[in-house]
Sequence to fold (404 residues):
Amino acid sequence: MNVIRESMENIQASEEMKQSTLLYLEERRKKRHDFRTYSVPGYVLAAVCLFLILTVSGFSVYRKPVSYISIDVNPSIELSINRFGKVVSADAYNADGQEILSHVSLENISYIKAIDRLLEDEDYSHFLAEDSLVVITIVSEDSDTIRETIDADEALRIYGTKTYTSDRTCMEEAHQHEMSFGKYRAYQELSQYDVNITVEDCHGMTMGEIHNRIASCQNHDGSGGGKGYSGGKQNHHGKHHSGGE
Amino acid sequence: MRSAEDINRVMEAYADMVRRICFVHLKNRHDTEDVFQDVYMKYMLHEESFENSEHEKAWFARVTINACTDWLRYFSRRSWVPLDVIDEERGMLDDGFAEVLEAVLGLPEKYRNAIYLHYYEGYSAAEIGGILGKKENTIYTWLARAKSMLRERLGGEWE
Fold:
């Protein structure tokens, strides 16, 4: 026997080292076994993941607004509408609007039902006096369909509602002034006749008052041609459609 | 995963060899225990079968050497002091061999592997080359240099 072999002959794995290693391996084996025993099969995990993805993506599609409707009397309320025609959010742009939305729920119902629910509300009806004006303004790529639906609504016909369309640029400008895009469109129309009118002035006016000022200016001009706007023709940011008049 | 019976079998067969390879490389018993467990854990998870017992033994030698090398690389900041590990094992060592062990453990790592596998486990240069992933001629060179260093340290009687 060579010296090197002899020198290491007594270096051996102790029983303690062997037993502790065997114990350690058994624990690891048990953990892996438990994991495999109680773990969910792959296809179930895949199905759950697919379900979650579809649910989340479906929910995000449902929550994404594609159209907007501004309803202005004096309360200014905007509805955000998803591709299924359901209201996903309702926002007030003045104190009267906030008061109404504090007790009227408009979300997750069709926009026409939401408008009817507003008109049926007792507090809202206080704003619908004889000299008041209900103005509905639409921002949508499918505004024709929405306008037809709104114009066909009996409740709105009763109040001689005026319907307009606008665009996203106008809507963004309106929101920068913390104003609904329906009222902002009316302000833009009035500003074409009255250069002294400001957004702040319109903040304090009802839609009836703004439209009376417009009508007054048009009459003052004589023909109603104004400086670029007349009912039923496109102005800078919108189109007028007489509804129920 | 390999069975508990299989683990018990290889524990009896190779535990001493794994322990000695750890001794040749590592600095203390605590490190040895960790690497020892790691080697057997690797075996438990090793799914491939071996051609024969020699193939299996060579696998244990190679995996243990690699585990020790990885361990040392991971803790490379520690200094390698052969006397410490010899002192730790003093209880089970014959005092007469302390000088030999100190000389072997003082060799560079690659020579240590070659010397251990050749003189203790009886592997040929070709077999050592297979285990360490080196050419046979390289192993011959390492063995020759290692012997020369040991001869210089211990004189001519050690072989």
Notes: The longest helix of chain B spans residues 4-25. Chain B has a mean pLDDT of 86.
